[in-house]
Design a protein that fits this description.
The relative contact order is 0.20. Helices cover about 25% and strands about 25% of the residues. It has three helices and six strands; from the N terminus they run ααβββββαβ. The protein is α+β, with helices and mostly antiparallel strands. The chain has one domain. Strands 1, 2, 3, 4, 5 and 6 form a six-stranded antiparallel β-sheet that branches.
Length: about 110
């Protein structure tokens, strides 16, 4: 399991690129001082949480879909997709919907 030193959006994107499951990602974020709040979910996106970095520079939205699959999106702000924030692709740049949804290992 990764150690508790995940501080930036790039750190999270690196974990997602290597492949990680939801539980391990959440444990790692907690150990790194990230805080969690309930995310608004819809019929397609399901239930989830928004994890905000210790310095409030970025966030990760982790969602559990009704079919049991999970995904994460990394944002360039603390609100998990609040107005004015952009989802980031694997290179840390704003990207398309397909480029910014990272499936988590079951």
């Amino acid at each position: 399991m990764p150690s508790g030193n995940i501080l930036t959006a790039i750190d999270v994107l690196n974990l997602l690129g290597k492949g990680i499951d939801k539980t391990t990602l959440e444990i790692t974020l907690t150990a790194s001082g990230w805080t969690s709040t309930l995310a608004q979910g819809g019929s397609k996106s399901g239930q989830g949480n928004i994890w905000t970095s210790p310095g409030h520079q970025c966030s990760v939205r982790i969602m559990s879909k009704p079919d049991g699959s999970c995904y994460a999106r990394v944002y360039n702000g603390p609100g998990g997709g609040a107005p004015g924030e952009q989802p980031l692709n694997a290179f840390g740049k704003p990207g398309t919907r397909g480029e910014t949804h990272f499936s988590l290992i079951p």
